[in-house]
């Protein structure tokens, strides 16, 4: 067996069969490495190990590794609302966390270019994404959900002066990033039914959309507008989530319903979409969200509420 043959045999174990047979010409070893499904770190570690091993083969002074990957189709789940402030970002963050805890390979994109909040919700403000081959590498949040937000890329407020095409480009960069083994991408949409929504729908073709609304009639009218936009674009409606549904007393936990109960569920039925569940208005949710500690990471009553909604989404995805 030549030195090259024994290195080729070692390569198989080292890369789990991902490497092609190495060739050596003029002292340069070349080989292809299939990197589909690997994270950037795993990839780098394998490439470094190959290099190290290759340079011990007599006659090899340089190594070239061509990384190949079929780009995996990401399943995009958009979280949208007709108007701002209804808790879309809170729901997106907690759904991502709950889905991860259910065993899904999930990533999170903050498409709210003008008012990004995911970096704070997921305690990743201090991180800056790297780029490789013109693709961004998502940052890791403390709960282990890879994520990207405009807040990781520009100073707060800088994107406010951007026009349509720049926004659409920025969104494209966040979504077409190096997501590694992520299969499901939760995308926190900006509020309303404007350019970013259209660009998102046309270019990135979500597999489905979750609509968030509060119990007030006004918010539901806005929700209907959002529903219509996605419906017209043939994006499947996964269902409606009612946020701030009733007020959970921080002392006794009792939930009261200043805006009445059951409105969102009835509205969902009327619009022909599933009702995914309700999250109460609770000081603890706001406090923990502000502190970058998503309630879905725990198992208390709020964690369970987010989990129940995530389970319904998981069911939808598995269909
Ligand atoms: N169920 C809840 N209970 C208590 N506070 C909540 C709840 N949901 C959201 N909030 C709080 O309400 C505020 C708005 O929520 P969030 O940012 O998630 O809304 P949004 O719809 O994404 O808003 P925007 O459109 O401005 O991005 C935040 O301070 C958040 O902590």
Helix-strand layout with pairing:
Layout: H1 3-15, E1 23-25, E2 28-34, H2 40-54, E3 62-68, E4 75-80, H3 88-101, E5 106-110, H4 118-121, E6 130-132, E7 135-137, E8 139-140, E9 146-149, H5 164-175, E10 184-188, H6 195-204, E11 208-213, H7 217-232, E12 237-248, E13 255-256, H8 263-270, E14 275-281, H9 283-290, H10 301-318
Parallel strand pairs: 2-3, 4-10, 4-11, 5-9, 5-10, 11-12, 12-14
Antiparallel strand pairs: 1-2, 6-7, 8-9, 12-13
Helix pairs in contact: 1-2, 3-10, 5-6
What proportion of the residues form beta strands (DSSP E)? 15-25%
Q: What is the CATH superfamily classification of the largest domain?
A: P-loop containing nucleotide triphosphate hydrolases
How much helicity do the residues have? 25-40%
Report the count of strand segments. 14
What characterizes the major β-sheet? 9 strands, mixed
Radius of gyration: 23 Å
Total helical elements:
10
**Outline type:** elongated
Number of domains: 2
Mean pLDDT: 89
The first-level CATH class name of the largest domain = Alpha Beta
**Bound chemical compounds:** adenosine-5'-triphosphate
Family: Belongs to the Mrp/NBP35 ATP-binding proteins family.
Function: Binds and transfers iron-sulfur (Fe-S) clusters to target apoproteins. Can hydrolyze ATP.
Organism: Sphingobium baderi LL03
Keywords: ATP-binding, Hydrolase, Iron, Iron-sulfur, Metal-binding, Nucleotide-binding
